[in-house]
Amino acid sequence: MRFEDLSWMDIEEYLKGDDRLMLVIGACEQHGYLSLLCHVKIPLALADAASQQTGVLLAPALSFGCSPYFLDYPGTLSLRISTLLDIVEDLVRSAYRQGFRRFLLLNGHGGNDPVRARMYELANQLSGIQIGWYAWWQSHSVQDVALAHTLKPSHANWLEAFPFTRVGDIPQGEKAPPFVPGLMSAQEARQAFGDGSFGGIYQVNDDIMEELFRASLADILQLLKFEKE
Amino acid sequence: MRFEDLSWMDIEEYLKGDDRLMLVIGACEQHGYLSLLCHVKIPLALADAASQQTGVLLAPALSFGCSPYFLDYPGTLSLRISTLLDIVEDLVRSAYRQGFRRFLLLNGHGGNDPVRARMYELANQLSGIQIGWYAWWQSHSVQDVALAHTLKPSHANWLEAFPFTRVGDIPQGEKAPPFVPGLMSAQEARQAFGDGSFGGIYQVNDDIMEELFRASLADILQLLKFEKE
Amino acid sequence: MRFEDLSWMDIEEYLKGDDRLMLVIGACEQHGYLSLLCHVKIPLALADAASQQTGVLLAPALSFGCSPYFLDYPGTLSLRISTLLDIVEDLVRSAYRQGFRRFLLLNGHGGNDPVRARMYELANQLSGIQIGWYAWWQSHSVQDVALAHTLKPSHANWLEAFPFTRVGDIPQGEKAPPFVPGLMSAQEARQAFGDGSFGGIYQVNDDIMEELFRASLADILQLLKFEKE
Amino acid sequence: MRFEDLSWMDIEEYLKGDDRLMLVIGACEQHGYLSLLCHVKIPLALADAASQQTGVLLAPALSFGCSPYFLDYPGTLSLRISTLLDIVEDLVRSAYRQGFRRFLLLNGHGGNDPVRARMYELANQLSGIQIGWYAWWQSHSVQDVALAHTLKPSHANWLEAFPFTRVGDIPQGEKAPPFVPGLMSAQEARQAFGDGSFGGIYQVNDDIMEELFRASLADILQLLKFEKE
Amino acid sequence: MRFEDLSWMDIEEYLKGDDRLMLVIGACEQHGYLSLLCHVKIPLALADAASQQTGVLLAPALSFGCSPYFLDYPGTLSLRISTLLDIVEDLVRSAYRQGFRRFLLLNGHGGNDPVRARMYELANQLSGIQIGWYAWWQSHSVQDVALAHTLKPSHANWLEAFPFTRVGDIPQGEKAPPFVPGLMSAQEARQAFGDGSFGGIYQVNDDIMEELFRASLADILQLLKFEKE
Amino acid sequence: MRFEDLSWMDIEEYLKGDDRLMLVIGACEQHGYLSLLCHVKIPLALADAASQQTGVLLAPALSFGCSPYFLDYPGTLSLRISTLLDIVEDLVRSAYRQGFRRFLLLNGHGGNDPVRARMYELANQLSGIQIGWYAWWQSHSVQDVALAHTLKPSHANWLEAFPFTRVGDIPQGEKAPPFVPGLMSAQEARQAFGDGSFGGIYQVNDDIMEELFRASLADILQLLKFEKE
Questions:
Q1: Could F114 and A119 be called an inter-chain contact, meaning their C-beta atoms sit closer than 8 Å?
Q2: What SS3 state is found at B94?
Q3: F84-109 per-position pLDDT tens digit
Q4: pLDDT bucket at C229, cuts 50 / 70 / 90
Q5: Which of C81, C132, C182 sits opposite B132 (nearest CB)?
Q6: Do F10 and E73 touch (CB under 8 A)?
Q7: For residue A117, how many C-alpha atoms fall within 13 Å in the half-sphere facing its CB?
Q8: Three-class DSSP category at E66
Q9: What whole-number distance in Å separates Cα of residue F161 and Cα of residue F167?
Q10: Fewer CB under 10 Å: which end of chain E, C or N?
Q11: Is ipTM beyond 0.95?
């Protein structure tokens, strides 16, 4: 149930029986050998699956996020943090005006965490709103899967190498994690990270990826209940 | 050649031989019986076709634009004008930093016209940049096709009823264009426009739509040459 | 009935019987051989004439607009687009607070079009407000006059050469319109446009100018009725 | 030498021999029985006189300033302080780009003082710029004239009652200055100030006004020398 | 009664019987031979004394203000004017939300004067708020003390050389005030002011400083009554 | 070595031999039974200790941060996220201009995390800058101490109950952590958290607090080396 397949009349109909909305906040940035849109594709795939099971509506994904540190990798299109906060505010306000009340923000990118700060501000202004926040790779569920397979999750390593994020050959083996001295500039980051991966194994068996996906999907299905206690 | 199917290494390779980039600026707003994403889908389809013929890269589409007047139609997610300008500035600056120089902005939505103002400001700041702007429905080519078939193009009428923007049944016949008294509020607009169409025939033969599409595509192919005289 | 000739007590008195206000949004920018203030003088002359016939109040004109592309022509004083939008918002909000409800914005300059976007946002926030927008040179009335005389209206050509905008000698004859390749920087624009005119005949008989003026004035008088259907 | 009487070519010519520019920053606000545009008219008259004697160029006046406290007096059109700062920055930057280097800002309104803060920021960014600031009523010269006639200058009393700011009858006699308890809201200010004057004698002999004008003009002529020691 | 020595429960208790709050707005900037924090320390000492006598609460001091002209003196940490205004607005709004209504802003730094403009805007938005503003060195009381001792108060001269602002040796004697040609850049200011003092006597007898302090404290105690007539 | 005890001349001297600066970013918000300034006091105490051992300069602490969710607890003074980012940017830019290059930001408050996003943007703009970020309670060192004593660290529990943050009696025993359903509004947060603690033991033996402090101090001393590999 994506907006793109619906007219406004369909949304009006939906709002008669439900007030939940999922919104994917992604990024367009280097992911080593993987797709530049990893941070959109993964939460979007999860959201589609959750929508299929629950019928909860899915707003168009925001394909851009904050990645100033990756700007020297071609293809990284980064928003200023102030811009990103304004976008998400505008989208939530628009939907709130029309009757949506329970929002699940599916964040795909660590650099987007500051959005939470603006959402807290909105929560003080929009009466009766409920805002859930989910960042799949930070969840206990996903970390437990990694732990169970003694894998270390990191940017652009196996963690994000789903069948649908691979766009070319991926190296075998493992990369030593580079040293990170404070908040690096784009120039320093490119020097430090080389091919873009933060280190670890580049890819694992698809069964593990499937397990990861299911663990995360279960989280989302739970969050969509918007339980208050 | 969309970013989503590429890694940063592919973009780096591309930049060795080309510095052109297409960027679709859309909207998520009511389109009567058509998809809420009409203003993304149409320029995106044109851009994909142009990319296929020329190899010019296509950045991820911006799915949101400025539609304050449609906010009372559920499903319309509108950005403040200030937000929209900041987004497009950020995207162009990011790509410029990496070596892109010739940008073709494919605008899908009339409410996004103010973006041009910010782009002029950027043109004064980013040395050597070239920015083309194309709004398919405003082009002479498209208007000539409409004229040839004695059709009046308008919001959410036949003009936007492509096979790929239809998401349900569309009425037969024609709608009388409502009276527009100045800049209407969302509330007034909903009252005035009812089902959302600005009037005219709801749909026409697909051959005309195909003719329209080809006329517009020819414009884009021409603009991608970035001729200076 | 300009603000400059009135005290606040006069405005208070006016508001007992009327809630209309005209606001001129101009620009200070190169106009070839014509006054730098063409885009103020023309709508202001129209507004004065309309005020004389109707008694509708006229706020002080905004003498500045958005002209980033002309910044390499000395005397062009251009606002950032964000600044312009904020100004007009502040002026309208101030007057709204005091009881004005029906605003006719008389825009003198194409670069100011984005103001409409902010006005739509205001229309959603200020209950009962009505905002009309009129750009004289874009009106059917003016274009019909041009057509009737087989003249092509353009920036700094005959179209704007009123007796009251001429500040020196104006060339005879006609200028070939320069080629415009996308959104030009100030440097490119100066190269392309030379003396600043966008081409066409530099001046015509004052009778035509008078005809033009009257056609536009008739539009404004009509708009000041703020008819809703 | 006002911009309105010149074309861009005239400005270009001027810049070959001079780099000075005067800019009037005014306000549109209640002035008791006087014109709503007092704060424009007075510095503008001074600037015109100074321009006549020195040939220094005069940019179009900014007719709006910050007067939040007078918003309950109809006809007061007030900018947010952030808006005002942006405007003056934009105007100075535009002129600086074209070669102007020595700016004399003629402020007509106390509420505009914060502009100085932004100008200091600009002075750190625009190499070689010189920015003078003159608020006529705050000058020693003007205060000396008042003192010599044992008059107390204040908002909308005799101080601003020039022949060219009077728009109707003005009361005889004197008003007791109201008590001002901190920073008042617009509502409180209207209650406190009644007719809008801050108290004192409403008008004096035109000879005194002429003396005042000449004293201030002498200041401006001195400042236009932009002496550095 | 500083916030740092209290828990939220203490504040809640206080609000049952009082709604007054003092807020110190300071600066971190060069003060010649004196502490970089002079503009915090002086109003803070006054506020502490006033709090001790009245029990009025004292919010944490803002240690930063606007000092763009001193940025070439190391240790000067200056906020943009827009930033400063936003901070004070945020602090006042936070406290207002919790029940504070009468605010006394104790400004320690001339460059912070524009804060008043934003406070006037707030006064129009927050019903029932009362905002007092006090800048100790601009008060008649302090100027009278200076006059009585035939001393000229100025930046970083004796005026600010309290026992608690001295951090090292201070020169004997007097400095000739430098010439100030308009709004200087940081570079020009450093050249003009040398050691940072604006001239005059560097220090005076502590008895005078004590007299000064008492005079100013008396003002504050009076202002804390928030008398309306 | 705090700014308050130094003049600008001292800073200039320091910069001849060092370019490091510590900056504390705190908050003024409810901490249950503890001081409203916990998030300033703790990193400040650490910074003072680190300064004493290394001689590294310490800028004035920022006493305010982002705590929108606690605004219904009196005494919480919260900045908008946009304001906070601007402040820290201004402070870092000021010091960078004067020669500081290596910054260690000591964050005391989780709600301030978004500052990192702006710092990444600055790192791309200020050549040669190095920015370290340390949030004491998020460090492995501190978490290891907690683990060793089988204590769970949380907001306003034992973790922050240092001798210097206690301002009154603290309950014995332990509080059950409240359920947190997504991003709560200030109203919901107050209902959920009651006395303000997030649960766990209210206070522990001072030896543990000392151990915690030392562990964190060791981290800071290490970070002040600004090692690049």
A1: no
A2: helix
A3: 999 999 999 999 999 999 999 999 99
A4: confident
A5: C182
A6: no
A7: 29
A8: coil
A9: 10
A10: C
A11: yes
